[in-house]
Amino acid sequence: MSQEKFDAIVVGAGPSGNAAAYTLARKGLNVLQLERGEYPGSKNVQGAILYAKALEEIIPDFRESAPLERHIIEQRLWMLDDSSYVGMHYRSEDFNEDRPSRYTILRAQFDKWFSQQVRDAGAVLLCETTVTELLRDESGRVIGVATDRDNGTVYADVVILAEGVNGLVGRRSKLREELQPESVALAVKEMHFLPKDVIDARFNLKGGEGVVIEGMGTITEGMTGTAFIYTNNESLSVGIGCLVSDLAQTGRSPAGLLEAFKNHPSVKPLLAGSEIKEYAAHLIPEGGLKAMPELFGDGWIVVGDAGHFVNAVHREGSNLAMTTGRLAAETVADLKQRGVPCSKANLRAYTKRLEDCFVMKDMKKYKDIPSFLHGNRHLFDLYPRLVSKAAQNWFRVDGKDKLTKEKEILTSFRKGRTLSGLLGDAFKMARAWR
Amino acid sequence: MHIVVCIKQVPDSAQIRVHPVTNTIMRQGVPSIINPYDLFALEEALRWRDQAGGTVTILTMGPPMAEDTMRKALTLGADRAVLLTDRCFAGSDTLATSFALATAIGKIGETWGPPDIVFTGKQTIDGDTAQVGPGIAKRLRFNQLTYVAKIDSLDPESRAITVERRAEGGLQVLQSRLPVLITMLEGTNELRRGSLDSALRAARAEVVRWGAAEAGVEDTAKCGLRGSPTVVKHVFAPKPRAEKAQIIETAAGPVRTQADAVIAAIFARQPGIESDLLRLARHS
Ligand SMILES: Cc1cc2nc3c(=O)[nH]c(=O)nc-3n(C[C@H](O)[C@H](O)[C@@H](O)COP(=O)(O)OP(=O)(O)OC[C@H]3O[C@@H](n4cnc5c(N)ncnc54)[C@H](O)[C@@H]3O)c2cc1C
Ligand SMILES: Cc1cc2nc3c(=O)[nH]c(=O)nc-3n(C[C@H](O)[C@H](O)[C@H](O)COP(=O)(O)OP(=O)(O)OC[C@H]3O[C@@H](n4cnc5c(N)ncnc54)[C@H](O)[C@@H]3O)c2cc1C
Fold first, then answer.
1. Total-model pTM
2. Which fold has domain B2-222?
């Protein structure tokens, strides 16, 4: 047992834990951060797009020292069938700004950098230390943690659970339920190494510009999921993810899906000649608001993926992680300053902070999306095929008059799905989006 | 007892990649680890300290960022860490390295008491020369016990030490008198984890940083590139030879029968293997 008592213990050194530990340490609290990985970032998998705003709120001048790869100037959204894609691309010179809003990063490097800022701010970080359980007093209040090290218990006024999607500590301590297979996606990702000039030429980029490609369609074989390609300086992050429940039902392996995606005729040339340097798999909490666990209690508070803070539609996670980490820390620091305990009643201020900003507003706006996507297989299979066929019909100049083409396209949609089905989908989509 | 353990920070060889075009080794972005042999040396030092009392000092010559790996060694329970870091040490070969380390060990002795044992690993996984340990011993005029698999006994009173040395063709049991320098083999002991308290202490410990002057190095011409007669001219990856590899089409039939066929072919080519394997299996 450690004799020392800390103001706060942060479990995990991902974006949410680092944001929390940094904010607390900067406010002068005595913080202990525990990370099971060999170093921060060693266990983390992310595409990865960094959304600048969330980090700016924590470290305003992060651009001066953070390891950033490319800033994003172009977004490509692809709807794929087996041989084609229908795309919406948006590229703008306006994204070449002084303070770009999105960057590609390599999580291993980024987390290391963030962690250095945390330690420079005064927090104590122990790596290769796994939290096994929460410690409670007779009243049930959380008073510290047990770790897997010898004499491994340590005490604090509050424990911030930033342990990521699995939430093992929370589950073991009965703060939350088991993860449901329909609220988590399993994503696999590869890093494809290519020289910088090849990436620049292939994606039409110069001087640190980057592209994001997000794809959906028959690549997931009807399962709810998406694929992505992100440009880093000298590599491409290529990945695909599907709901665990869908994977279980179909028996498909994510690795097989990724292989198929990489071999899609629209994707293959982008990767040609690359060398794969790492392969990783990770869960993403995609159940939205309805899958969120309890977020706080006597002496504990949950942030980031552990709290299911992910906006799956917009592929946002790390920004919610950092924002919730910061808000939890501000809540705790505020209580500390007022000299009141981190009781359940007092920690309620955390939800208020979440509701006052984009975090809860977005979680609420998208609360029906997960069940909508999950219950509508044709979104990932039938529609992409129909749209692609329609586009092909439209663009082929084959002597047919345009009116006939329009009619054919309409009929193909009506044949694929009944009119009421089409209308119903549109209606459900609109309602879920609202 | 005062034990000094020399620890080198090396690139994690499991994560080194070879540039696909130039065929050179890419060190950039490769995480650093403690040279694996040195961990066995450290564990042995900690054990004997725990048994006989005293302190363990770890010593590294390397760039400032080597501090991270030193902190890891402190987590395991070392008492203090000295990082020898100075631009003038850059580019050292084994001669210059053993000069700098031996000088620093002299200074460590002046500061915290003369060492009774200096440990090094058998060799590193990047330079691989196995010369630094003996080089230090020679300069300090210590007896050297190389390729040590096990320390059988150590008596701080009579200052006698008995070790097992793995040599070609057998095991030697050697006895010597302290102070000695030991180069440690791999797989000799099981590494500890370090308690929460020692991890906390390590996270906050000051790593002592010495430049050449603080370490007592007077003649910097013997250091770094200037003091290194050896030059690594070219490092490259040997071309993988494909003729031994065989691609087996799994579509051609059940995997099991194919595997059996492959194994049968190997046994036919090298008749001794089957009986060797059986013997090994029986022994384990
Ligand atoms: C690919 C490559 C090839 C090289 N070939 C040669 C060569 O042929 N000749 C030559 O003179 N140099 C060579 N060098 C340089 C040499 O490796 C290092 O510069 C030298 O500092 C240490 O030698 P070593 O790594 O072989 O150590 P070894 O002699 O193999 O190391 C034995 C032990 O000495 C201790 N030790 C070694 N270095 C340090 C350190 N910096 N700090 C603390 N303890 C340490 C450790 O306990 C280690 O286990 C080479 C370097 C590389 C990268
Ligand atoms: C393939 C993929 C692509 C993604 N792409 C993006 C993207 O482009 N943009 C984006 O914003 N988000 C993206 N995300 C989501 C993003 O990665 C997460 O939302 C974010 O990492 C959550 O941060 P966190 O700190 O809550 O959790 P994590 O980053 O998972 O960190 C949790 C940390 O806690 C540690 N830990 C866990 N249990 C314990 C324990 N018991 N004791 C000690 N330590 C423990 C873990 O080792 C880990 O370091 C992606 C995710 C995946 C899988």
1. 0.84
2. Rossmann fold (3.40.50)
